[in-house]
Design brief:
The structure is a homotetramer. Chain A has helices at about 1-25, 30-35, 40-45, 50-75, 80-95, 100-110, 115-120, 125-140, 150-170, 180-190. By secondary structure, chain A is mainly α. Chain A folds into two domains: about 1-50, Orthogonal Bundle (Arc Repressor Mutant, subunit A), CATH 1.10.10.60; about 50-190, Tetracycline Repressor, domain 2, CATH 1.10.357. The longest helix of chain A has 24 residues, at about 50-75. Chain A starts with a helix and ends in a 5-residue tail after the last helix. The first copy, chain A, binds a DNA duplex through helix 2 and helix 3.
Chain lengths: ~190, ~190, ~190, ~190
DNA sequence: GATGAATGAGGCTTCATTCAT
DNA sequence: CATGAATGAAGCCTCATTCAT
């Protein structure tokens, strides 16, 4: 019973991801999501308080899952450079595997500034912490030079994030995660010759 | 007469930037922009065909101005590393000087994938070209190692872009352009020790 | 369920007829129709795509019903003169029984040449055909003299139509259908003495 | 000076006739009429109090001119049948000569019921009187049989009116006034054989 | 729990009219 | 007289949300 409920909730979330990806949050209709999910309009409101809450649920769920998977995969990697590459790989793979989810993340996450702040301060904080701790660890091991780890985190995240956005805007459907290696190499060793 | 018309158009654009920055495009009302600009609702439609066109005009104007200023400033800088730093500086300074404009750029620009594509394919292309040519020039001078220049462009842009977004979300009002030097250093020399 | 839906649709149509009759199509507000029908503004749009479509529906329905009733009543009348009189009677009775509907028909039907053409080419064509075939039948029976039947149809229709318009503009509420006999007599035998 | 003023007023009226004929009164914009007349929007309001008054002026002027011309032409025709034919001819010729004016007359005259009543009670009354007196004269001369002359007037007017409407809806540009003879014959002698 | 018809607040936009130049 | 930029009231329609069935 409880399972069935979770199933239907997920069904609605998946429908919302497809709908938001196609038309954007503000140009998507609740009735459209309902149709896509194969339920009645009113049913949406049994599982979610409002249209806005569906969007939040998408991010909540996707971020939770991503952080959980990432922590699991990173558990046994101790080399800082290897870890950074793994992080980039997981990030690119996760969004590269689901273009609709990626679209919602890259486009609708910037829903409005309050919305962004909310996630940046909670769920996304965990992700940023993973990157930051990896950089700090590398600095302790003298693999990385001195540099504000928070600053480095932003730079690294910015690189990955732009790869995803660029991939979305490109019509070509290349393997996004393949960029992880050279992205990390660029971040660690820079663009300079030698 | 012509001047006055341009003045009023600009007045509306500035009001729209403030309004969009505050509430986001979709949660802003045309009547609110009108009030903020000190004109009647209908007056907006003498200068713009639709609400959507106001948003486009903001980007059009801001990007044109930015590219024009940048090209002027970069004219006499030939050293690739210096050029990259100048680009980062100009970018960060331009948006750092106008928090409302920055908000609209970082939040509203990605509100709609079609809208993004439109600008990425035209106005923004010029900006990306400036970065790319600088990287290519550095590669010819053997200052930069071999790496797809387009890929490098994305990484560099991604770093800058994330700095701006992070600055917006931060409550602290630090000097954004101060990051240009260390950002460029990180991009060119990487994070690795020595 | 289906019945209830048809009922409500009809309820809106009747409200629209009253509203259009009172103020004319362009000076009628959708909110006024809704109020008159006892439903919310938005409900109108569950049953009709647009304000314009309500007007079309009024004509569609009224013409369909009129042609159906007329064909039924005329089935057993073979004498051409009797048939013409019956047609005039039915036409005058139909509109004479519902002053609001008559107003919409006489005033709003000609509000727009494109709108008129649409109905003249479809629904109204059936009605004109009934008149024309009666004239042709009378000519075959040598009751009527040679005359382009289409021309005759227009003349006959014009006579009836003007009776309705005149009745609408008159404040007196006389029995419109009483004119059928003398109208037909005038059409068939003319104004000449003997 | 006065002449020039009248000229410009007429210029606006002609522009309004073309504009109303094309789009109908409610779908015509004052700015469109101004453009068509080659004057500024505000200039319209120097010559007319409102948009509605332009429409009234069109009917005022056209009806005055028509009645004046008709009375002049009918002065020397005493035979009732000849007079009726002349009336039909003048009516059909007048509107047949200016399709735009005819469109405005047949379509926009039914602007709303109050508007119609206003003209039917004043300007149009003169025209109806001309027809009615002709019928009465024919009855006195025993050319026409006994029949309420007002009733006969409506029938005759209805026939002519429908000819005009039918011509408007027809794409063919036939000579409308050619129908005057057979129309009158039909009205006087009827459709009956012999 | 599920439905989907009904609600009604509110937005974008139009356009007749005004009035300072 | 002529202009046309500015006004702002008001309409059509949309759509998130509710609730009786």
């Amino acid at each position: 019973m409880k399972l069935k409920k979770e199933e239907k909730k997920n069904q609605i979330i998946q429908a919302a991801i497809r709908t938001f990806a196609k038309n954007g949050y503000f140009n998507s209709r609740v009735s459209e999501i309902a149709k896509e999910a194969g339920v009645a309009d009113g049913t949406i409101y049994i599982y979610f308080k409002s249209k806005d809450e569906i969007l939040s649920a998408i991010f909540d769920e996707a971020l939770d899952k991503f952080v959980a998977v990432s922590e699991e995969r990173l558990k046994n990697i101790s080399d800082p450079i290897e870890r950074l590459e793994a992080i980039a790989f997981l990030h690119l793979q996760y969004l590269g595997a689901n273009r609709d989810l990626a679209t919602v993340f890259q486009i609708e996450f910037r829903h409005n500034i309050v919305f962004m702040e909310k996630f940046t301060r909670s769920k996304l904080r965990d992700y940023f912490r993973i990157i930051r701790e990896t950089i700090e660890s590398g600095q302790q091991k003298k693999v990385f030079r001195k540099l504000d780890p928070k600053f480095g985190t932003k730079l690294f995240f910015g690189m990955i994030d732009e790869m995803v956005t660029s991939w979305l805007l490109s019509k070509k459907d290349y393997q996004l995660e393949k960029a992880a290696k050279s992205l990390t190499r660029a971040f660690v060793f820079g663009l300079a010759e030698c």
